[in-house]
Amino acid sequence: SPSPSSAAAAEPQTPQDLLLDFKASLHDPTGALSSWSPSTPYCNWAHVSCTSATAAANATVTVSLSLDGLGLSGELSVSSLCRVPGLAELSLASNGFNQTIPLELARCASLVSLNLSAGAFWGPLPEQLATLASLVSLDLSRNSFEGQVPAGLAALGSTLEVLDLGSNRLSGVLHPALFGNLTGLHFLNLSGNQFMESELPPEIGRMSSLRWLFLQGSGFTGVIPESFLELEQLQVLDLSMNSLTGAVPPGFGLKFQKLMTLDVSQNGLSGVFPEEIGKCSMLQRFEVYDNAFTGELPGGLWSLPDLRVIRAQSNQFTGRLPEFSGGQSRLEQIQLDNNSFSGVIPQSIGQVRTLYRFSASLNELNGSLPDNICDSPAMSIMNLSRNSLCGTIPEFKSCKRLVSLYLAGNGFTGPIPASLGDLPVLTYIDLSSNNLTGGIPTELQNLKLALLNVSYNHLSGRVPPALVSELPAVFLQGNPGLCGPGLPNDCDGTWRKHRGLALAATVASFLTGVTLLAVGAFAVCKRLLHGGEPSSPWKLVLFHPVKITGEELIAGFRDKSVIGRGAFGKVYLIELQDGQSIAVKRLVNSGRLPFRAVKNEMKALAKVRHRNIAKMLGFCYSEGEVSIIYDYLQMGSLQDLICAPKFTMGWKDRVRIAIGVAQGLAHLHHDHSPQVLHRNLKASNVLLGDEFEPRITGFGIDRVVGEMAYQTSMASDLNYKCYMAPEQSCAKNPTHLMDVYSFGVLLLELVTGKPAEQPASDDSVDILRWVRRRINVADSQILDPSISRTAQQGMQAALELALRCTSVMPDQRPAMDAVVRSLCSSVHPQTLQPTEIALEP
Ligand SMILES: Nc1ncnc2c1ncn2[C@@H]1O[C@H](COP(=O)(O)OP(=O)(O)OP(=O)(O)O)[C@@H](O)[C@H]1O
Q1: Which residue in 368, 528, 588, 668 is a FRET match for 751, CA 20 to 30 A apart?
Q2: Residue bearing the bigger pLDDT, 166 or 488
Q3: How far is it, in rounded angstroms, from Cα 163 to Cα 165?
Q4: How far, in Å, from the CA of 561 to the mean position of ligand 1?
């Protein structure tokens, strides 16, 4: 029987032991918890703090753990942690746990604050969290939680003050019962859950203590409930980026005496905005842009003492702009573009000393610019383009911070003020399409301009030399009186000659255009006559002996020879006269790179030689169209196998395929300099040779077609989105870790026996979501049931590896050489020998 000491070791009792047990479950690469040692009292450990309720020796101690941003990962084991007496605060925020919420957390009964934000957690939100009856603050934001917000969380009741579920992948409808009960909330954040399909629950309006309400970007539909009018404590209300419709309820704002920020922009709201908002004396930001509001902006708004920002662009607002209470106004930004405001620009605008952006383009403003328009020392962006303004442009002298000045598309007359040249940071000037006269002031040469568009005015005289050389001619055109080198009139009286030349050039370019059109039409006709074949000359480049000519290759592009098709084009099987078979991928969007560039890339790709990489035999090039020639592998692809009516391959063969693919990918990543990235790994790009030896194909296509064409083709391939790493859509550069992610998806296919994208039947989710939804329930439901139980251990290891490869955080994914090692160590060497496969018809 175990000795007392070993029993104690198995089941730690002191807070110290319990915390050390918890630490043991963490991976702590930077040693942030190295001070956690049995020799020091735990209250002195780093990131642990203790407070005692009374000074008495036996006082209850409350413990706080703040492990934010320590680079921790690992499989959290919280069962011992939850037994630490007095554990009141736990923060694991900004780490990389990549797992579901451990259900044992529900046992941390004394927790007052739980922060798991940005911890790379995923999976459903467990209802069990509702057992944390003392919880005041629950922050689960910025993770990948999925599914509905469990109605059971209502049991947290009125004790809960902060609930942050923002920036997750939560979906479905919000249960009204949830909010009916959480009456103590001060802070509610459901924003950034773009898959939510819910109306705004009126019950939220009954949370009378709410101060911060963030509901933006979460797919909310319907109207703003009237009950929201009662939220008297509100300081911030953000409903932007949803699909809300209808009018804002009358009286909105009447009770918002503490409101500082209101944002309802980017919805489908309409009607007149209620006047009462103009009485919210603490309002600082009023953002209503991109809606369909009509009528005037609430009059009281303009004189609110604290208002800094008005963003009302892209609505249908009408009316005149009011005078400002000059020196008292604290307005910093006024954006009114793309509305129907009319009347003149208020004289007092220059007195608003804090104003740095004033844009009201695309309106019906008229009259002239006030002389003092640039008196605000902060003014930096002014855009009044496309109005009906007239008169002369005043001297701009005081606004030394002006960066952009857009006055295009008005009726301004007179000269361009030379004083613009004295504004030290002025960089963008657009004065096009006005009636300006006189010359372009030489003072403008002092500026470091990125844009000077003065086209379509009545300017004349010599263009200052520095400006001619730096500006595209289009920004000067439409001013027949301007002259200078490179312009139709070079200022030397040779205008006529040039005009003659210009005319000749126009005629010549017209004729060239006609000729090109004719040639183009001829080429198209020729293509049509020849069954869609591109015209020669062919350039056939072979890296291995293949007995084929360009003509024979093109003749082989027949519909009946198509054996596969993907986003990048169709694959044709062509049988050569000597009995050899080749597979030719005819790229549909070849990016039209020049032959030399394509050849160089092809050569580099053809040099990649490995038993798990498909052999590239050569390529054919014609007018930018590229076809790649591969060895034909008669077993087809892994996808063909997995999608067969019954996929009954044993685990041994599956793991051999996985190892082969991993080895091929590791070769691309680690044995080439510069590194070769696949960028399109999926089951259809894993071909099978003799005895199911896998061969990776379709890699490096981005290098052949160019990034633009690659992106376009990838974007069109909705079927295989699930192979793409989540960061792919926003990352600047591709990385090998994106390939690792795709490999992880492929490994999941082998473990589950299911194709990556599931047809509509199986609740039409992709494989990763399918797996993640079940992972909390039981791993045995994930592993392919057709495989004998004896293989379970290996499959389980492969499942875990696949989940690591598909981690949402790229730096949590293993490199491919580590994947190879991991897969190889999970199998018996004998497994690597091929065995028979049973593929039922
Ligand atoms: N070299 C080959 N030998 C035998 N069959 C092939 C070969 N190349 C492709 N195939 C067949 O064609 C199918 C589709 O291949 P293709 O490369 O067009 O698919 P994809 O990867 O979906 O497309 P894309 O690379 O454009 O995204 C494969 O699943 C396979 O059945």
Answers
A1: 668
A2: 166
A3: 6
A4: 13
**Main-chain phi, psi angles of 572, to 5 degrees:** -110, 140
Taking CA atoms only, the protein residue closest to ligand 1 atom 20 is 566
Maximum mean pLDDT: which of 243-252, 529-538, 807-816: 243-252
* Nearest Cα residue to 452 out of 396, 405, 522, 382: 405
Burial 361-400 (b: 16+ CB within 10 A, else e): bbbebeebbbeebbbbeebbbbbbbbbebeeebbebebbb
Instruction: State the ipTM, two decimals.
Output: 0.97
| pLDDT at position 326 | 65
d(CA 728, CA 202): 38
Q: Residue type at 814?
A: P
- What would the pLDDT profile of 342-375 be if each residue is shown by its tens digit? 999 999 998 999 999 999 999 999 999 999 998 8
**d(Cα 686, Cα 612) in Å, to the nearest integer?**
9
Reference 370, options 358, 378, 362, 380; nearest CA is 358
The answer to whether 136 touches 786, Cβ cutoff 8 Å, is: no
Beta strand segments in 92-205, E? 113-115, 122-124, 137-139, 144-147, 162-164, 169-172, 187-189, 195-196
Q: Whose CA is nearest to atom 29 of ligand 1?
A: 684
* pLDDT tens, position by position, 771-789: 887 775 555 678 888 888 8
Residue 377 to residue 703: CA distance in whole angstroms: 51
Collect all residues with Cβ–Cβ distance below 8 Å to 541 and sequence separation of at least 6: 599, 602, 618, 619, 620, 621
Q: Which residue has the CA at smallest separation from atom 1 of ligand 1? A: 632
Q: How far is the CA of 637 from the centre of ligand 1 (A)?
A: 7
Tokens of 115: 């922060």
Give the integer Cα–Cα distance in Å for 27 and 352: 56
What's phi and psi for 251, nearest 5 deg? 90, 0
578-617 in b/e form (b: 16+ CB < 10 A) is: eeeebbbbbbbbbbebeeeebbebbeebbebebebbbbbb
The answer to whether 440 and 459 have CB atoms below 8 angstroms apart is yes
Q: Is the pLDDT of residue 563 over 50?
A: yes
Tell me the C-alpha distance between 372 and 367, whole Å. Answer: 14
Query: How far is CA 496 from each of CA 460, 500, 695, rounded to the nearest angstrom?
Result: 17, 6, 69
**Number of other residues whose CB lies within 10 A of the CB of residue 417:** 16
With a cut of 70, say whether residue 527 has pLDDT above it.
Answer: no
Dist. CA 631 → ligand 1 center (Å): 12
Contact (CB, 8 A) for 713 and 588: yes
Running DSSP on this structure, what letter comes out for residue 11?
Answer: S
> What pLDDT sits at residue 525?
30
How deeply is 828 buried, as exposed, middle or buried, from its count of CB atoms within 10 A (0-12, 13-18, 19+)? exposed
Pair of tokens at residue 463? 């263009």
CB 313 within 8 A of CB 336: yes
Cα–ligand 1 centroid distance for 570 (angstroms): 8
Token output for 656: 């051999």
* Burial classification of residue 525, based on how many CB atoms lie within 10 Å of its CB (0-12 exposed, 13-18 middle, 19 or more buried): exposed
What is the reported pLDDT for 570? 93
Q: Bridge-partner residues for 139, per DSSP?
A: 115, 164
Strands (E), 567-691: 569-575, 581-587, 616-622, 625-631, 686-688
Pocket of ligand 1 (CB under 6 A): 563-569, 571, 583, 585, 614, 630, 632-633, 636-637, 639-640, 680, 682, 684-685, 687, 697-698, 717
What the block records as the tokens of 493 is 């009286």
Q: What type of residue sits at position 283? A: L
User: pTM to 2 decimals?
Assistant: 0.63
CA–CA distance, 493 with 496 (Å, rounded to integer)? 8
Please give the Cα distance from 160 to 151 (Å, whole number): 15
